[in-house]
Amino acid sequence: MSQEKFWILLSKKLANEATxxxxxxxxxxxxxxxxxxxxxxxxxDVWTSRLAHDLMEAEDAFMLHQQRMxxxxxxxxxxxxxxxxxxxxxxxxxxxxxxxxxxxxxFLFNNITGQRSGEGSGDGLAREVNExxxxxxxxxxxxxxxxxxxxLNAGSKLTYDKNFGKDLxxxxxxGEGYFDVMKMKDKPFIIHTSSxxxxxxxxxxxxxxxxxxxxxxxxLIRGSVEVTIKNRPNDKIILSPSExxxxxxxxxxxxxxxxxxxxNVSAAAIKTLMSVNKLKYSPADSTVAETEWIKNRLVFRDExxxxxxxxxxxxxxxxxxVADEELQQKRVTGIFENETIDQALxxxxxxxxxxxxxxxxxxxxxx
Length: 367
Known about the structure:
The protein is an alpha+beta fold. Helices cover 31% and strands 32% of the residues.
């Protein structure tokens, strides 16, 4: 019911027909469901575009989809039954509803929330989860229902149960996230990734767990975390502040998934390499490279060009192919902050002589 109410209130707001009470109610709904905020921004951008001002096209769009909304048993309220002498106002309300339900509904229900997981609950019903994702080249800040803050790096996804915080505080991360967890002694905060589980009470840390990467990293800034490696459940690693755990999975694990044939997995004897290292703080400003991305700074220290290329792909939303194997192993150190992709590649060329060709968002680096 709250989702239906959200669409109705948002539609009225876009059409400048919402009362003060309705605007307040909409804000309260967004506070209860912070994952909807990104959808509000996207729908607002569409509404303010030139297309939104074509009233005839707007009414046509609404009429085409009106039947679909009825099939969803969604009541649009009294706003759609205005008298004929308010035709322009009615059309604007129709278009706002169409924009919110058609564009926003597709975006929100398919990419952010209201998705059904494939895992059933004990009573046989599907478990409803919220999902927040970021595209390559973008980042997002999310406040969870318990007050914990999560920054999501480019190309990342965070999912959590709709009942998050009532009994458990569990999330699943794909990609990279910086967590500032609200302390609750009776409700530990648990993060699941493809290779590790992280249990905390209240702390600040960074988790880098992109499925395509060779390893998963957990960098602890303050507090304490307990990390369990999925294929070694009896081994628990307790991190102290300023420590970084690096877990590298065997090549048999592809894209964060273990093959279905369990016998083959057992025969291959999956091995997990891990190491705990001290975080390296910059002597100039006491920062650590692992968390500078939340300040829009891409920091790299003694990384191979191949490793940096993967990070730059996410950062700039491009595809980079380092075609020369010797170039792939060249190591670089630096910071990108406001540089464009061309400026960044130009800076790298000062330290590593190479040439590159760009076609659209595809870049090939060679000698």
